[in-house]
Amino acid sequence: MKEMKKVLISCLMLIALSFTGCSKQADTAAAAGANETKVEDPKFISLAGGSVGGGWYVLCGVIAEMLTPVFPGSNVKVTTGGSVSNPTSVSMGKVEIAATQDNIYADALSGSGPYAEDGKIANISGLARLGEIYMSVFLVEENSKYESIDQIIENEMPVRLVTAVQGSSPALATDRVLETYGISAAKIKEWGGSVTYVSYSEATSLMKDGHADAYCGPIMPATIELAVTKDLKPLPLSRNTISSLCDTYKYGRSTIPAGTYDFIKEDLDVITENPILVIKSDMPDEVVYRITKTICESPEKIQGSSNTYKTWTPELASQISGGPIHPGALKYYQEMGWVK
Is the pLDDT reported for residue 10 higher than 90? Predict the structure, then answer.
């Protein structure tokens, strides 16, 4: 009888110990789960594009539509902006994502170029490269008296020039084109002309209404719209001017093939910039990973946003040279094998 009691007590002790072990394992698992902090969706995802009527504004609208179902708890919206002002807006937390140019991104990080006065811009990282933009295409009406940029300068013609809003890289490029030719907006004003910095839609309206003689900037949807109502012709930048702009400001060089647009009758040499998206550096990696994945997995939506991006492929997204890529985006690119 005593032996049976001993056996029974031993069995009960073993059962108790097994329950204690299970309880400890459960407590450990619960503690581990408590330590895993779930990254919440941001309350706001604001995207700063360019001016109304421009390709960036349309592009950011398309991306906002792509992100809305992925972040149902976030308020996703698009605002206007400019490639020079956008990095500052991201840095200050006014927006989370913004369009700019690769060379402008480099200037922002180093505090050079348009940021020389204010200094280095912090809390911005590269998100995705979007392709190549033809810059400073100088357009006038086909039957106008303007035959070349040199003719305008030599004769001090009072040309009324319109370009993009101040704070944008197209406006900066226009100023640099004038500077490289040895003139400025102030000099054109002395001749009785003007240089007006407006949105692309406003530039189109001014040209349509005969209140402007020339446009200098990228070919945007609003520019295509203008070409429907008016016959246009380009005034090519000289080869020396293009070379100087490329050497001094690190613009790219390209050729718009004849026939790309109705008003490009012959191959046209131009300067180029690489548009990119930048994002707040302190945005959680997981959130940035999902944003990057969403953009790259729907290339047809990016391509359809504008003629500028019709040849864009996701593999291009990682090709940012102006500065570092956000770790969340980099993780996606490495998984895809686009970055080692």
Answer: no
